[in-house]
Amino acid sequence: MRTWLKDPLAILAEGAAGGVVVEGGRIVETVATGARPAAPVDATFDASRHVVIPGLVNTHHHVYQTMTRAHPKAINKELFPWLQALYPIWTKGLTPEAFRLAVRLAGTELLMSGCTTAADHHYIFPKGLETAVDIEVEEARALGLRMTVTRGSMNLSVEDGGLPPKEAVQDEETILLDSERVLSKHHDRSEGAMMRIALAPCSPFSVTRSLMKATAELAAKHDCRLHTHLGETNDENDYCLSKFSCRPVDYLEEVGWMSDRTWLAHGIHFDDGEVARLGRHGVGICHCPTSNAVLASGLCRTRELEAAGCPVGLGVDGSASNDNSNLMEGVRHALMLGRLRYDATLSHLDVLRWATQGSARCLGRDDIGAIAVGKQADLAMFTLDELRFSGAGDPLAALVLCGAHRADRVMVAGEWRVVDGMPVGVDVAKLRYEHGEAAKAFLELF
Question: Which domain, by its residues, includes 286?
């Protein structure tokens, strides 16, 4: 079926002011101002009220953390004490049922914010939750959300000099065997894939050097991406200097991760030489502005990293360090924090680029992140009907500067997944109630 999304109010694409034609899950034609599609269409959607952008791509999240938003034991803390407060709660409270609801809620929020592709970093596998990756795959498919689910890992507990409690970690053999299993079962390397798997040891302070090296070898074997937290805080730098006698970027190179297969979450505390090295190897950086602000972690050097050659993308990050799953709000925060670091020449187009093209590059994808012929038909469409937009002259700038936070229409692979601001096939009231009830248990732990 050929569908013409006709005459949008504005569109983030060159030569497409007359809209786009979608067929078979892809964009097959862009239409110039005043023109009609070159071939007949089966349906026409009037997009004259809509600002159309590529579907946003979230390159770092922890969906399970929706269960501990604004948790009284963790608010007003920086990263290490925040983690130490929440690790025991997550480890004890995460059941398969609670995790499934967390995935469903976060995925629904992401879609409603205009996000069409998400990478989730799941690294806690307490007893009974060994199939967390499979649960996440099932829920993403039901929602119609394109995903890279990263099989995270931790094997260095506090007893071994790490940060997480013993109950939160697995041994290296278990981690590698399950990584092989989920890669074989779920990793789709084809163009237009709805589901991919990446491997993601959590951080230098929660995994061993041996696991980092073995994971890099496994990723090369299966042609998948590598992901981890790096350069998030000064505490991490101090930890690496103490434990490994080197800084985090040196450690990354030592364990075989310095390549364009890798993308890193946060990437704040890099010096000039490290920025240059990361760029030279094409290592991606996921900027998480909201979480970085909440945890007082610092300001990512986005401009320098991008100029050096690093793909720069955006991430929501954990729903307990954000505390929501709204990537469009993250786009605005990236602009505001970026201007504090740099100046007013950092534009709405820069941050929209990070949230689309840059994020797609972080995930190793060239089939999403832009509105162009041949790309996947992943689109986010916003109206400017709310009071906050009244008087706005530039519709694309208004999305960022006036604070758009909810898409009116969202298409993934040519299918409508959000219509009139509501997710298709999801009972939002029921989900809110069931998730809220499950989350209450996390307030009663410890």
Answer: 56-362
- H or E stretch covering 313: strand 312-314
Do residues 410 and 297 both lie within one domain?
A: no
Per-residue model confidence (pLDDT) at position 370: 98
**pLDDT tens profile 19-66:** 999 999 999 999 999 999 999 999 999 999 999 999 999 999 999 999
What type of residue is 6? Answer: K
For 286-318, write each residue's pLDDT tens digit.
Answer: 999 999 999 999 999 999 999 999 999 999 998
Residue 150 near residue 172, CB atoms below 8 Å = no
Distance CA 387, CA 122 (A): 38
- Contact assessment for residue 129 and residue 96, using Cβ atoms and an 8 Å cutoff: yes
Claim to verify: residue 169 and residue 233 sit in the same structural domain? yes
Does residue 382 sit in the same domain as residue 259?
no
Do 141 and 181 share a domain, yes or no?
yes
**52 burial level (CB within 10 Å; 0-12, 13-18, 19+):** buried
Q: What pLDDT is attached to residue 446?
A: 73
For the chain, state the CA radius of gyration: 21
* Positive or negative torsion for Cα 217, 218, 223, 226: negative
Please indicate, yes or no, whether residues 227 and 333 belong to a single structural domain of this protein.
Answer: yes
For the chain, give me the number of helices (H) and strands (E)? 15, 18
Total domains in the chain come to 2
Does residue 283 come out as left (phi exceeding 0), alpha (psi in the -120 to 50 range) or beta? beta
CATH number at residue 50: 2.30.40.10
Angle between helices 132-143 and 96-112 (to 10 degrees): 40
- Cβ-contact 68, 439 below 8 angstroms: yes
For residues 107 and 120, membership in a common domain is answered with yes
- In terms of domains, do 165 and 269 share one? yes
Among residues 245, 268, 251, which one has the least CA distance to residue 204? 251
pLDDT digits (tens, 9 = 90+) for 109-156: 999 999 999 999 999 999 999 999 999 999 999 999 999 999 999 999
Q: What angle do CA 206, 211, 216 make, to 5 degrees?
A: 120
pLDDT in tens, 235-286: 999 999 998 999 999 999 999 999 999 999 999 999 999 999 999 999 999 9
Q: Do 176 and 216 fall within a single domain?
A: yes
Phi, psi of 354 (to 5 degrees): -60, -40
What is the enclosing helix (H) or strand (E) of 166? none
Name the residue type at position 188. D
pLDDT tens digits, one per residue of 316-333: 998 889 999 999 999 999
Percent of the chain with pLDDT over 90: 97
Q: In the structure encoding, which two tokens stand for residue 86, read together?
A: 């929440």
